[in-house]
Amino acid sequence: MEIRQLEAFAAVVTTGSVTAAGRLLGRSQPAITRLIQELEGELGFALFTRSGPRVSPTEQGFLLYDEVEQTLAGLQQIRSRAAALARGDGRPLRIAATPALSAGLLPAALALAFGRGLCAPGRVEVRSVSPEQVVHAVLTGAAEIGLNSLPLEHRGVNVHWIGQAACVAALRADDPLADGETVRLADCRERRIVTMQNPYRLRRRTDAAFAAAGIGPAGVIDTNTSINALTLVRAGLGIAVLEPVTARGLPLTDIAVRPVDADIPFYFGVITPQARPASAVVLGLVEVLAEASATLLPDFVRRDPAEHGALLQSLYGDGAAPTDNTESLSHD
Asked: Quick one: average pLDDT of 83-110?
């Protein structure tokens, strides 16, 4: 299996045709076809189904593409790093964050860091990934610092602080409920609610609040990102109850953000690998992120990492009381 075969495969998946893939890679159509056939022969299964000039990945092709995409991205990172070393550049600061935190909080924090000379512009790499992938990036060294939603149980990471802020409602500015300072969930019983999918994080808390307010699951639209929720609200499809970072850090035109009358806490924090000491730049950014959080979120509370076990218990009940695995989560 060769890199050029994987590049041809990824290019065909991306463009949808062998001809377009050849143009993208600067190779002839027969050359791309030959590379794909060689790869299929080595793998022992078909990667594409063909319909005239168009091709579509098979189910096995789709599954393989996820791995190939990561491999090619890693290769591109190596090439970029090698070019930077040739120019005499130092190591870039690599950050992994969830979509909400990378869009709603990280830009303001980096602006402060650049303004204070904590890190050099052009030497920062930001990846927006799922909470689980944030942890993986920190553990494997793909990122020096992670900005993640909590709770989090994993060996090998340091949690520097726990941030807490209340979830909010996002609704169209012309919605009658936007006239008040606070949105009562009970007033949303006849309205469609937009909320997050992941049942093990924020969704568990919002579901409990909806049940207490008499809001059933039939009136809910699930989505996987807060920015999706905001755009659904702007289209008039419902009221979103979501974490406050995106709602306040990435405001959209015609969207009003209001507190809700239910106690739905959102927890997030900054993590670094336990196996490698954090640099002065990383430690500086840790503090800047807390400062930016306090500026963005009017009810922001910075908690000590030692409270993590108690937070787990309060969120998930007695069954989540600190265990050996919970206590293995290291902190400053």
From this structure: 84
User: How many whole angstroms separate alpha carbon 181 and alpha carbon 267?
Assistant: 23
By the 10 Å C-beta count (0-12 exposed, 13-18 middle, 19+ buried), 22 is classed as buried
How confident is the model over 141-170, as pLDDT tens digits?
889 999 999 877 667 899 999 999 999 999
Domain identity same for 156 and 290: yes
CA distance 117 to 285: 11
Residue 228 DSSP symbol: H
CA distance linking residue 202 with residue 217, whole number of Å: 16
- Looking at per-residue pLDDT, the higher value among 190 and 283 belongs to 283
Report pTM: 0.73
Domain of residue 176, CATH code:
3.40.190.10
Helix (H), strand (E) at residue 147: strand 145-149
Whole-angstrom distance, CA of residue 220 vs CA of residue 185: 13
Regarding whether 238 and 203 lie in a shared domain, the answer is yes
Query: Residue 97 has what DSSP assignment?
Result: E
Type of residue at 56: S
DSSP label at 91?
P
Least Cα distance to 326 among 201, 136, 152 occurs for: 152
Tens digits of residue pLDDT in 208-227: 888 888 887 667 888 888 99
The radius of gyration of the chain's CA atoms, rounded to the nearest angstrom, is 23
b/e map of 144-171 (b: 16 or more CB within 10 Å)? Answer: bbbbbbbbbbbeebbbbbbbbbbbbbbb
The contacts of residue 217 (CB under 8 Å, 6+ apart) are none
As for how many domains the chain has, the answer is: 3
Q: Confidence class of residue 122 from pLDDT cuts 50, 70 and 90?
A: low
Residue 58 is part of a domain; what is its CATH number?
Answer: 1.10.10.10
Are residues 101 and 142 located together in one domain of the fold? Answer: yes
> Whole domain around residue 35: which residue ranges?
3-87
